[in-house]
Specification:
The complex is a heterodimer of chains A (about 270) and B (about 230). Chain A is an alpha/beta fold and about 270 residues long. Chain A contains 12 helices and 8 strands. Chain B is α/β, with parallel strands linked by helices and about 230 residues long. A 6-stranded mixed β-sheet of chain B has the order 5-7-9-11-14-15, with no helix packed on it. The radius of gyration of chain B is 19 Å and the shape is elongated. The chains are: A alpha/beta (about 270), B alpha/beta (about 230). At the A-B interface, helix 7 and helix 12 of A face loops of B.
Chain lengths: ~270, ~230
């Protein structure tokens, strides 16, 4: 059975694409799926570092394309999880070292072997982005609740639609419930209203992610962390399960009612 | 060759090239673009070459495969007025209000000769529509997107980007949206922008038009008459 290729992209840099790929890849593999993560960020590879696999790289994506090795030789097996592999990017080359067509062919081959091919896209909308989406069947767009990130996500969604990768799904990363509550951060509804695509998950801002990333160990391993739980939920939604959004606030019903009332009052005042 | 211009996308046929080569190139370009242009209207510019009816039909058939209409050829304008935001240059198609009233009867206010582009999609950041005529969009126009046309702009959704109606100097042009929250509004040579402080959000459909040399935004009521 052929798997599917999903590109994780954002437009803006630093919103958590690589962390998302690492966690979703690991999470899917933990559920018994065969997963290959492809780092399409040639020249600025990170996924190997986040996965703690940097020291195992011998061949990379560009070596495969240029015929220096077979595809299977470049795949690195994860050190913790069965069924999880990484196809690393070349660090000493640039984005134009491969073409969208070559990327597409590699994804086709990988899809025969794996249930999921997760592609980590570089930031930006240029050649590297076009490579990253070339072989994808679906797209996940990552944004943070900031105006600039949402604007770039909007641009990217438009470009995905132009490449017939319609109906991408949205991950809102690094949301801070306390700031949302004070009205200092866009809330989920604000973001959804602008981007108007399906939300597949919300990941709270969490120090554990930084700790885990620096250790080269995806946070999804530790489901006691809020972010780990959030990634696990996204994994289950990718698998077709219907998982309700995690309750981000620690507050109870009273607080939520108060907020609802406040919003209502704001609207009435505006009239 | 495809060339984007002020009045939309033009298919430019090289005067020297053979028509077969031009047709093949056009097909390749459009396949590459996928569905991006679906629903658009293209202009055909063959330079000084005179196309035969059959050649024109061949090109028309190709673009129709990709869901594109071919508009009637129009003269290339040398001196675009967009970007200058000055009063329309002499010779531009521009009726003064007085002239309009004398030449058009009360019921004929809608300029019947203006074509209308209907888009059933959301324009996202970086996307842009230029049209010679009116534009109706069923969807949103997000911040970072841009709509420019010579007639009216109607958005059945939220307008958060930039809209320029009456781009060739028609001050009678209007911009209307269910949620009129544009980054910037332009009508003819008038420009207005959103206030720097976040004000109350519009609660219903609103309409923008030029009154006393300023762009004025009012709640839209169905009884509105131009």
């Amino acid at each position: 059975m052929a798997g599917k290729a999903i590109v994780v992209t954002s437009g803006k840099g630093g919103v958590g694409k690589t962390t998302t790929v690492a966690n979703l890849g690991t999470g899917l593999a933990l559920m018994g799926r065969r997963v290959c993560m492809v780092d399409a960020d040639i020249g600025l590879r990170n996924l190997d570092v986040v996965m703690g696999l940097e020291n195992r790289i011998v061949y990379d994506l560009v070596d495969v394309v240029e015929g220096h090795c077979k595809l299977r030789n470049a795949l690195i097996k994860d050190k913790r999880v069965e069924n999880l592999f990484l196809l690393p990017a070349a660090q000493t080359r640039e984005k134009d070292a491969i073409t969208p067509q070559q990327m597409k062919e590699i994804c086709e081959v990988l899809k025969e072997e794996f249930d999921y091919v997760l592609i980590d896209s570089p930031a930006g909308i240029e050649h590297g982005f076009r490579n990253a989406i070339a072989g994808a069947d679906e797209a996940l767009v990552v944004t943070t609740p900031e105006v600039s990130a949402v604007r770039d996500a909007d641009r990217i969604i438009g470009m995905l639609e132009a490449h017939e990768l319609g109906a991408p799904k949205l991950i809102i990363n690094r949301i801070r419930p306390d700031m949302v509550r004070r009205g200092d951060m866009m809330d989920i509804e604000d973001v959804i209203e602008i981007l108007a695509i399906t939300l597949i998950g919300v990941v709270p801002d969490d120090q554990d992610v930084i700790v885990a990333t620096n250790k080269g160990e995806p946070v999804v391993f530790d489901r006691r962390t809020r972010s780990g739980q959030a990634y696990h939920n996204i994994v289950r939604r990718l698998e077709g399960e219907d998982v309700p959004l995690m309750q981000l606030d620690n507050d109870g019903l009273v607080e939520r009612l108060r907020r609802l009332f406040n919003r209502d009052a704001r609207r009435r005042k505006a009239q | 060759m495809l060339k984007g211009g002020r009045d939309g996308v033009a298919i430019v046929i090289d005067e020297q090239a053979s028509i077969e080569a031009a047709v093949a190139e056009l097909r390749a370009k459009l396949s590459e673009a996928g569905n991006f242009f679906r629903g658009a209207a293209f202009r055909l510019d063959a330079g000084r070459r005179r196309l035969t009816e059959a050649e024109r039909d061949a090109i028309s058939a190709i673009v129709r495969e990709f869901g594109i209409e071919l508009r009637e050829p129009r003269e290339l304008r040398e001196n675009p007025s967009i970007g200058r935001f000055s009063a329309p240059a002499a010779g531009e198609r521009h009726l003064s209000p007085a002239l309009r009233l004398t030449t058009l009867g009360r019921g004929d206010e809608m300029p019947a000769e203006e074509p209308t582009l209907y888009l059933r999609r959301t324009l996202r950041s970086g996307q842009r529509v230029d049209y010679q005529g009116n534009v109706v969009i069923m969807g949103d126009v997000n911040a970072g997107a841009m709509v420019t046309c010579t007639g009216d702009i109607i958005v059945l959704g939220a307008l958060r980007g930039l809209a320029h109606a009456g781009a060739e100097g028609n001050e009678k042009a209007i911009v209307m949206a269910f949620r009129l929250e544009p980054t910037q509004l332009r009508i003819a040579h008038h420009i207005s922008r959103a206030p720097d402080e976040e004000g109350p959000r519009p609660q219903g459909p609103e309409i923008a038009r030029v009154k006393n040399d300023m762009i004025l935004i009012e709640a839209y009521t169905p009884s509105y008459a131009p």
